[in-house]
Amino acid sequence: MILLTCIMIGVIFAASLYLMLGGELKEICMGVFLLGHGANLAILAASRSPIGKLPPVLGLSDASAELVDPLPQALILTAIVIGFAVQAFLLTLLVVTWRRARTLDVRELAVEEH
To answer: How many helices (H) and strands (E) does the chain have?
Structure first.
């Protein structure tokens, strides 16, 4: 199962890199969004499998019991919230750029007007 997850992470990172190298701002934004999701999946894959482990919130007195590490889930939850804020900001920039320049092509936006 971990091999399939690693392959998925590689595909997501490759697709996000392809999109970020695109010629339009909407493709670049989609690549950034996908890169965030791939990073979240990589953090989840790097944490160990929770199968057979106990949640740390039960407060069991058995010291020999193996508990699930809650840090990866907390990091992913924080990354999701920050990712939503970044997505909202980038989409706002897309709308403002479209309204002012009437194009989202990076090559056209790079040309200086005299």
So the answer is: 4, 0
